[in-house]
Predict the 3D structure of the following.
Amino acid sequence: MSIFKRLLKRKRRVVLVTSPSSFPTAYVRSNTYPFSMVPVVMATPLIPLGPAYIAASLEQAGYDVKVADCTFMDQNKFDVGRVKDAVLGLNPDAIGLSALTWTIPSAYELAEALKDDSPDTPVILGGPHVSALPRRTLKECGAIDAAILGEGERTFPDFLGHLFSKGVGPEMEGLSGVAFRHGGEILGDTEPVYVEDLDALPDPARHLFPLSEYVKWSKNFEARQTPVASMITSRGCPHHCTFCTRVNNGVRHRTRSPGNVVREMVELKEMGFNEVQIVDDNFTHDRKRVHEICTLIRREGLDLTFQLANGMRVDHVTQGLMEAMYDAGFYSIHFGVESGDDRVLREIRKGITVDQVREAVRITRDIGYELNLFFVIGLPGSTVESEGSTLALMEELGLPVTYSVCTPYPGSPLWDQMGNEMDEVTWDRFDEGDVADPLYLPDGMTLDELQEVVDRARALQSSMSEKT
């Protein structure tokens, strides 16, 4: 066979690069380290499911897929040269980068380094940041050739098929959810695309990731059982919180069927995992489906425990639902409380009340759940008085708390409200824990007052931990 024919037969290789772990600092009271309130970097050692789903869809479409996994790298110590050499050493025909807002600086730096060494290799970016700001992102980084917007399991293979068969041209504008660079212009459809039939997606390509490293990392979890895996059972959230960005998964709640969900749980157990973090945006939105999932878990006799680490809405809590989940192995719930003031909760369109928080805590604590409460300091409408109500609620409930400082992320209603105030903001400032240099101050507070609230929260949590 000639060299030309062998090249035609060779699968196109796509190398996917995951984001380094650089997440906002939050203050967490933990019963493990030891009974103290400490600032921690909210890094996750779980396999990044977004890239893992993309990898699986590319494999299904016939591509040779490799992953350069940067999850265990700290963005503040991100070695661009090392990552570039690793990626190009895999001989890619195309490179897919994934980035969040706080990791976009390293994505830009890596894209530029890759283009310097391999100018003809296409670099494609995905993730929530570029989904929210496609044109701005491509203008800011000339080394990025195209962007996949929203959920890319169908869009990315379609784009690559067109790219490899016909090259880049104006006819690509017919592809949904793709922005691209051509002839000095940025063209394409800048509306994100979302997958409707989640059951039709292949399971995440976990086999392409260093499973032994994730297993080792997961043994550090505050978990009833290890190793710990993660999974997604639904996408999208129909609620309208002003500080939340949902551009990457959309506002329409789409679900996997209970049978499809439990099938993957069985496979995770067979892979050696004993606990699962469900990282849906809104797992309990369809409570009938959750009941069905719990019934199937019990019917399978699955010896798994479950956490809802991404949060659950307090207005979804009922005695029957929480008992069914507990009986199926759910034991750890994070509630998104955000504020202890009803007026602020209305201002941010959270759709809950403080009394609902108290009732949800009462029901779940009585059943036996381990609880953690999410709060955000400096939300729209906040004042010193409303933050005092938040601190009082923390003290009243006496539970572990995670809190951060309100930050307007691209794609959120709060970002849109800020208008051109955000035009000159550099992406390296997106750190919810840096109260000395916040990106947002509510009209009712000064910077000194915001700092004082954080200081009071720290002191309160220290006092509470001593009583534990």
The radius of gyration is 23 Å. DSSP finds 16 helices and 17 strands in the chain. Confidence is low (pLDDT under 50) at residues 1-8, 23-43.
